[in-house]
Design a protein that fits this description.
Two copies of one chain form a homodimer.
Chain A lengths: L1 H14 L7 H7 L1 H4 L13 H4 L3 H4 L3 H7 L3 E6 L4 E3 L7 E5 L3 E7 L5 E7 L7 H4 L8 E6 L1 E7 H7 L5 H26 L2 H16 L3 E3 L2 H8 L3 H13 L3 E4 L2 E4 L2 H7 L3 H13 L4
Antiparallel strand pairs in A: 1-7, 2-6, 3-7, 4-5, 4-6, 8-10, 9-10
Helix pairs in contact in A: 9-14, 10-13, 11-12
Chain A binds a DNA duplex (30 and 30 nucleotides) through helix 2 and helix 12.
Chain lengths: 281, 281
DNA sequence: TGTACACCGTACGGTAGCGTACACAAAGGC
DNA sequence: GCCTTTGTGTACGCTACCGTACGGTGTACA
């Protein structure tokens, strides 16, 4: 089943080529070259502490976590493994441990724009919590790593009101809403350079490393712009000494410099996440 | 208290003038001319059926509605009455009866973009339900009319898990998320004419009338574009016989024609709302 | 060692939408 | 009936970004 996701979606992801490449990329990403690929649902020798690296799971009272633990399994996600696709029933929810996932709105013509990024601070699969059976949006792995996953039915049946996780997911939902809202306005009002810097900062917060893999092609799809635009912006940022970027390896050199280039949206979103997830209201 | 909202916010709404007008408009919307304005919190002679015009309230089982009814009061909202402002504590939630409210993301420089529209199918004030104390976004009345309102504390204390309203608000939250996500992508990928048509359709769905008041200035702020752009688009739509638009009075003449001009986003959002709020998953 | 291919820098014409400005007609207060 | 305000149409130069294209340089694999 997940196999199907991977194949169909690799095709989708590459079907839209903003740089106007011909079939070359399509073949690469398409079924032909990916036939041997297998979705690695590794049941790692997980332990409680590892699962609790996810901040939602880590914030649970002992007995609540122990109640959920039998329903959790560790899976390893590779870049562009698809978790959800629009109108397809949701089978699992994912609590990222050290991976990062992207939620994408996708148009009929195949063009996509990222509308959410989820790391260890959250859970991918909110629609299950909110009462939907099928996914309204597409989601895939952006930065590889592990996640704790749980069957959608388990989430529905095991989490009730009054549970700590129920409250935490409410707050995470609120933060996600603010993220989407701010992104919407940001897409309307801010330049490619600002949005690109914001995206790098946001991902930097989530991967927890100063260096990660990221091609311009990939980033251009996240931002919904041409790859050439990303190239221009990346050159500028590199010229100012804020990042180093070479063949898909991005390294943040000057984070505060990046923050100065980025729009206010990163700060607004970060503040909102901290406010809702760390402490009180 | 609500008085303060009105005054401060009128100022905010007019502080950004995309058409580059000078202080003229500012004075009009500012404190000077609005001093005599009063927020009409009319306690109408409401009855259950009237309150139940709101689809969320209307979908409740009898006993649940009767349990909530003592906490509900009818208020009349005028255009640009502000319901929420960022970082200000939320005192009430609003169930629109025949008004429509807009949720706006607003930047430091005063520029705004609409990120949500709420009519009788929903509730304004989701952050309360989701555990926030203060508003993360600005919200004001877009189409005047009545709403049932409830103290935020009442919503927090009277609605528990297992209640029908709890489930309905979950689904409404999901629909709102999809709205924000699709809007975000739409803002990135579609033209002003497409987005403008989409906005008109969306509002048409919510007001339930073929004619409503809407200045180009107002619409330009919703869309986050110049008023001049709205003027150009409106002329085009009028030329094609899809709408008539004269001095703030908009009339929809050819709805299916509008749908053809608009992007797919309106259909996607509408489908999602229907799916989540009308029937099953 | 060659040769595919992934990834990137750069260029060039085209255009949607911007900021700004101005004039004009209808609405409304005095 | 005048005068201010509100709402609108239109224009002009400008800029960011688009679609497209092509060549160059590393990396992987035979």
């Amino acid at each position: 089943m997940l196999m199907v996701f991977t194949l169909v979606s690799q095709l989708l992801l590459f079907a839209y080529r903003p740089d106007g490449c011909t079939g070359r990329g399509l073949n690469k990403g398409g079924i032909g070259a990916e036939e041997g690929k297998e979705y690695k649902a590794v049941e790692a020798t997980y332990n409680a502490d590892y699962l609790k690296s996810n901040r939602l799971l880590g914030a649970l009272p002992v007995e609540e976590f122990e109640h959920l633990q039998p329903h959790l399994e560790t899976v390893t996600l590779e870049v562009k493994d698809f978790l959800y696709e629009r109108d397809v029933p949701i089978e699992h929810v994912y609590f990222p441990i050290d991976c990062v996932t992207s939620v994408m709105a996708q148009m009929k013509d195949g063009r996509m724009v990222e509308v959410g990024t989820i790391g260890k601070e959250g859970m991918d699969g909110l629609p299950v919590f909110l009462g939907a059976q099928t996914a309204p949006l597409t989601s895939f792995c952006q930065v590889p790593g592990d996640a704790a996953r749980m069957a959608a039915d388990a989430l529905r049946s095991e989490i009730g009101p009054g549970d700590r996780l129920h409250e935490l997911l409410h707050r995470f939902t609120e933060a996600t809403l603010v993220f989407a809202a701010q992104s919407s306005a940001c897409n309307r009002l801010h330049s490619v350079e600002q949005r690109c810097s914001r995206w790098i900062l946001h991902t930097h917060d989530r991967v927890g490393k100063d260096e990660f893999h990221l091609t311009q092609e990939f980033l251009s799809q996240m931002l919904g712009v041409r790859r050439a635009s990303v190239s221009e912006v990346a050159s500028a940022l590199q010229g100012e000494g804020l990042i180093s970027y070479w063949r898909g390896n991005l390294r943040i050199l000057d984070r505060s410099g990046l923050e100065a280039v980025a729009c206010e949206c990163h700060g607004v979103i970060t503040k909102e996440f901290d406010r809702l997830l760390d402490s009180g209201a």
